[in-house]
Amino acid sequence: MQDNYKLGAILALIGAVVGMLGFYLFTQIYNPLITTMVNLNRAHEGQSVRYTFAVLGYLTIGAGALWSLALYGFLTRERWAWMLGVIASTLSILAGFFPAVPAMDAKTAPVTLAIFVPNLVLWLALFGVRKTDWRIVVLALGAGIAFTLSFMDGVAPIAKFHETLDKDATVNALYLFAQQINWWASAAWAVFIFALVARKPWARVVGIGAGLLECWGGYPVGILNVLEVKRFSLFLPAPLLSTALVIFLMLPVGRKLLDDFARGDTQR
Fold first, then answer.
1. What pLDDT is stored for residue 203 in this prediction?
2. Extended strands (E) in 60-157
3. How far is residue 9's CA from residue 67's CA, in Å, rounded to a whole number?
4. How far apart are CA 73 and CA 36, in angstroms?
5. Cα separation, 158 vs 258, whole angstroms
6. Average pLDDT for residues 74-101, to the nearest whole number?
7. Distance between CA 201 and CA 199 in Å, rounded?
8. Can you tell me the distance from the alpha carbon of 40 to that of 217, in angstroms, rounded to the nearest whole number?
9. How far apart are CA 244 and CA 249, in angstroms?
10. Nearest to 239 by CA among 210, 265, 264, 219
11. Rounded to whole angstroms, how far apart are CA atoms 210 and 135?
12. Contact present, 221 and 175 (Cβ < 8 Å)
């Protein structure tokens, strides 16, 4: 089906402008938020901000560049422009959402929602540029939530690692090793989303792998936090959602949906 290149160009232009705004916002909030955390006697969370916000800032700037390239692609009616838009908006959604969490926790303005909200709208609007089976859109959205939550489960261990230094050697090591596993799972979920909407026949296997990877990294962090706070942990939704997605992708109905979509047999 032919892409709506005019709509795509408008979306890409908006995405590029939001990317520029994101570049500015991260330079404004980075050091002040670290200082705020230190002043609140939460230096270990300041360490988390120091590393994580740098990564998210890189994603925001890179996504802005991708939106610029997508704009050129839409203007010259290139099919690859749509996928660049999906990649740019997906990365920007993560970069805009997570920084709002520690900002609100520190009673400061969650200004990066100005990146998150427009890119969520742009992500959904891109499926108007290229018509896609609504079941695939819902599955990609669910994987996008898992992508974001898995990244968050990789952020918490950074603070916990610094907090448990010289306290409990085993727990400290657990946070160290779980941290990257969760980020690898987050990256794998992103690859799954891109492969899924691009109709790649190997997308399902990547999704199963992403979910299993998050289970290995997410459940230890979540269960350890439950034992610590004596209530349901906000680190458990990532592995729980990943478990549900893995089960769906393993079931015949999930396999058939992805196989049919890869062959172009599903309804629009």
1. 97
2. none
3. 9
4. 42
5. 36
6. 95
7. 6
8. 29
9. 9
10. 219
11. 20
12. yes
Chain center to CA of 159? 19
pTM (two decimals): 0.91
The DSSP call for residue 53 is H
Token pair of 231, please?
């209530």
Q: Does the CA dihedral 57-151-91-84 come out positive or negative? A: positive
The total number of residues shown for the chain amounts to 268
The pLDDT value recorded for residue 2 is 80
Q: How many CA atoms lie within 13 A of 237 on its CB side?
A: 10
Phi first, then psi, for residue 116 (nearest 5°) are -65, -55
Domain chopping of the chain, boundaries: 1-130, 132-268
Task: For 226-235, write each residue's pLDDT tens digit.
Answer: 988 889 988 9
Residues 164-181 pLDDT 10s? 887 888 888 989 999 999
Q: Please report, as a single letter, which amino acid is at residue 210.
A: A
